[in-house]
Amino acid sequence: MAKLTKRVVDALQSEAKDYFVWDSQIAGFGLRVMPSGAKTYQAQYRKGGRTRRVSIGRHGKITVDEARKLAKEVMGQVAKGENPAEEISLHRKAPTVAALCERFFEEHAKQRCKPSTQGEYRRAIDLFIIPAIGSFKTVDVERRDIAELHQKFRDKPYQANRTLGVLSKMFNLAEIWGLRPDGSNPCRHVPKYREIKRERYLSQQELRRLGQVLGEADQDGSETPYVIAAFRLLILTGCRLGEIQTLQWQFITDSGMELPDTKTGARLIPLPQAARAVLSTLPQLADNPYVIAGKLPGQYATDLQHPWRRIREPAGIPDVRIHDLRHTYSSNAVSSGMPIQMVGRLLGHTQIQTTMRYAHLANDPVNRAAEENAERLNALVGTPTTERVLRVVR
């Protein structure tokens, strides 16, 4: 044993097998010389009746003095009852964020979430989370890592916020699974971006043009009758796209559309006569249970986006999304004077706050009534026909 110095370390030669040289000043501090010639500083101690060894750093990357200082820190941890070698081993075996993503998807998303939500989670995981921090150890992720990932997609605030939500749920589960300390979710206090809610309603004139284009497409056969019916049903019922796409004939009863599973659970959706008239035009296929039959046997029409783009262009509404048909249904209901609570029930909202986005439209019938009443009164009492010039008296 001798005091380890740069000169002593540089003079050591590799042998057929690796060997150790221990420092004479600090017990447990030494150097490991590999047959390849690589030299790494070590800190060795006993814990639980076993010899433990921690690799401090490679000679050339750190100096002897730096290694000696780190060795003292390791021995200090041991004196406090800690086991740094075991902690390092556990950290090395700790799952990465990519592994956490897969466990989250298999044990949570697949078990508890609807297929549409699973698709959203999978997209966030594959496109945004794994490419950014997938190689990080789950236990090492810090708030700044999450903030950087969130800020990276600031030009897509909606997607950035949804990804932050997925991450927050994942790290909550990581605590439950014992992969991180309690209360250590790194997503906490990372502020979401402000989202501008897009509210687009079709005017009466736009609805007429849309109806005309749907009729023409039905007549010339450019779109299937099932596609045409899907859009008409969306307009007349205010349903979500998935609710109409996956609608089965067996769900249609005298009471309406009795859907066993929707975004908000089982729902009974009213089916007005106009919607029933649309359904009466569709042939029921013996080998297909779905109302909106697709091209494949026994399947529903999975792609309505491309037909919608073909239809909305000649209708003069190129900015309208399919979901805006639901907004149009809602806005018409509220503008006609229907109570917000009733509109919420028609839409299947579980919280009144969701329906309150249309609350400002409830003023429309009130304003119209005020105008009509004022016109009648004005016809009786009249109003000044000329404007007076106001003079300021000093």
TrEMBL record:
Record has DNA-binding as a keyword: yes
Domain Core-binding (CB): 95-175
ATP-binding keyword on record: no
GO molecular function terms listed in the Swiss-Prot or TrEMBL record: DNA binding
Pfam families attached to this UniProt entry: Arm-DNA-bind_3 (PF13356), Phage_int_SAM_3 (PF14659), Phage_integrase (PF00589)
UniProt keyword terms in alphabetical order: DNA integration, DNA recombination, DNA-binding
GO BP terms: DNA integration; DNA recombination
InterPro entries with a match to the protein in the record: CB, DNA_brk_join_enz, Integrase-like_cat_sf, Integrase_catalytic, Integrase_DNA-bd_sf, Integrase_DNA_bind_dom, Integrase_recombinase_N, Integrase_SAM-like_N
Domain Tyr recombinase: 197-371
Domain of life: Bacteria
Family under the similarity heading: Belongs to the 'phage' integrase family.
Name of the protein in question: Tyrosine-type recombinase/integrase
Organism of this sequence: Parasedimentitalea psychrophila
